[in-house]
Structures are given as structure tokens and as C-alpha cells.
Write a structure and sequence with these properties.
single chain, 224 residues, alpha/beta, Rossmann fold, five-stranded parallel sheet, three-stranded antiparallel sheet, binds BIS(adenosine)-5'-pentaphosphate
């Protein structure tokens, strides 16, 4: 399954653990698509010990959103790099209404409008298990899950043999906080896009293969 020759600018929106990162990685494997994950970018800053990383760490570890002013400039800077000239998926941004407004302004300046906002709809009950069971490969970034997608050998990536790690914010207390922040600050972002004709709702409470099929059709349908 490929995304064909369509060029798209897509936002992936949905609660923590909805499968946004899992699906974005599948799409990257199938086509010429750039995956811009604000969570991954921030984790790189934390690991690299940058100023931004130091400021963001405390918020991230406790499951709170990083302040808008820090994240908006990071994304603005990313979207003007040459590799963002083609199709991209913005995963984890915008997450507040002010972030959505800032994205509108940047894309308007660049003359590069959004083609899709994909909403991953999933009941919240299953999310705690998805998040606390998640393990990520420290070498290739592959996403596994001790409950829903276990590796053959515990703690070892099936794809590359790298060591698996658990994210600091996948502890149960931080997960609860992330879900609360999602309900209070991110769900209203859906309203920001609801009357633009670009919002696509995907039932994300199914197998990853079924979700991918719907996603590919949606992305092929409207393009730049
Ligand atoms: P971020 O890294 O963006 O985390 P998130 O939105 O909480 O999303 P996740 O990565 O947890 O979930 P996902 O939907 O990608 O799920 P995944 O595919 O991994 O952000 C982390 C932090 O950074 C934030 O809390 C905040 O502090 C900060 N931040 C980032 N962006 C920000 C912004 N814009 N503003 C302010 N702060 C920001 O899947 C989860 C698990 O489920 C995996 O184990 C997977 O194998 C499994 N799974 C996936 N699909 C399925 C399926 N269909 N069925 C069963 N299991 C599945």
C-alpha cells in the first residue's frame, strides 16, 4: 500500500497512545513523506541537553504540555527547512488553540495550506494499557508494546536488535496527567478545524492494518 503521488500537509490529532506515531512511521516506510513529531523533537532536545530541552523536560516528565511559546518557534523553524517542501505529517502539533492559530499564520505566510487534519478517535479506557505497555527501540525508534505488540525477546527490538526503553512519561501518574491535559487543552483544537472541510475522523480502535488502509485512502483523496 503506497500513498502514491499525492502531496499532502497533514496534522495527526488524537489522545496520547492513539497510535499517531505508529501510523506515521508506517506511512514514512511507504512513501516520500516527512514525519515531524514534536514529541520526538523535544526528546532529542532533552537528550542533547539544549536550553529548550532543559526547559521542556520538567513539563514532559510530569505529563504537562510544554508552553506554547517554546513549541511554536520550534515548529516554525522546522517547517521552513528544505526537506519540508514536499508531503509532511505533523504529529503532536497543534495541541492547543493558540498553537493552531500560530500554525495557520505560518502556513498562510508560506502559501502551503493544510490538506488534512486526521483525528484518531479511540476510547480513553484502552489508552492507559497502550501507554504503560509501550516500549521504543533506542536505536531505530520502532514502537512495540508488551501487551499488544510484544517483541520475540523481551527488551530487544525485533527490527534491529537494539535495546528497548520505556518513556519517562509512560508511568501511570504521568499518563493520567497527559490524558487530562488532552481533554482540557487539545480536544478544543478539533473545533478549530471543524468547519474547514479538512477534518477526517478515523476509528483508531482497530488493528493497525485497518487504520492504515483508511489513512492511505484519506491522504490520497485530497492533495495539494
Ligand atoms: P508526544 O511524544 O507527542 O506524545 P503523545 O501525543 O502523548 O503521543 P504518544 O507518542 O504517547 O502516542 P501516539 O498516538 O503516537 O501512540 P503510539 O503510536 O506510540 O508528546 C510527549 C510530550 O511532549 C507531551 O506530553 C508534551 O509534554 C510534549 N509535547 C509534544 N508536543 C507538544 C505540543 N505541541 N505542545 C506542548 N507540548 C508538547 O502508540 C502507543 C502504543 O499503542 C504503542 O505501544 C503501540 O504499539 C500501541 N498501538 C498503536 N496502535 C495500536 C492499535 N491500533 N491497537 C493496539 N495497540 C496499538
Amino acid at each position: 500500500m503506497s500513498v502514491g503521488s499525492a502531496t499532502f500537509h497533514s496534522v495527526f490529532l488524537g489522545p496520547p497512545g492513539a497510535g499517531k506515531g505508529t501510523q506515521a512511521k508506517e506511512l514514512v516506510d511507504r512513501g516520500d513523506v516527512l514525519h515531524i513529531s514534536t514529541g520526538d523533537m523535544l526528546r532529542e532536545h532533552v537528550q542533547g541537553g539544549t536550553d529548550l530541552g532543559r526547559q521542556a523536560k520538567e513539563f514532559m516528565d510530569s505529563g504537562r504540555l510544554v508552553p506554547d511559546e517554546l513549541i511554536i518557534s520550534m515548529v516554525d523553524e522546522r517547517l521552513v527547512r528544505p526537506d519540508a517542501a514536499g508531503s509532511w505529517i505533523l504529529d503532536g502539533f497543534p495541541r492547543t488553540v493558540p498553537q493552531a492559530e500560530a500554525l495557520d499564520s505560518s502556513l498562510e505566510r508560506a502559501g502551503a495550506p493544510l490538506t488534512h487534519v486526521i483525528y484518531f478517535r479511540v476510547p480513553h479506557e484502552g489508552l492507559i494499557r497502550r501507554l504503560t505497555g509501550r516500549r521504543t527501540c533506542s536505536d531505530c525508534g520502532a514502537i512495540w508494546n508488551v501487551f499488544t505488540k510484544p517483541t520475540r525477546e523481551e527488551g530487544v527490538c525485533d527490527a534491529c536488535g537494539g535495546a528497548l526503553k520505556q518513556r519517562a512519561d509512560d508511568r501511570e501518574d504521568a499518563v493520567e496527567q497527559r490524558l487530562q491535559q488532552y481533554n482540557a487543552l487539545t480536544e478544543p483544537v478539533l473545533g478549530h478545524y471543524s468547519d474547514r472541510g479538512i477534518l477526517v475522523e478515523i476509528d483508531a480502535d482497530r488493528s493497525p492494518e485497518q487504520i492504515l488502509e483508511d489513512l492511505v485512502s484519506a491522504l490520497q483523496e485530497a492533495s495539494i
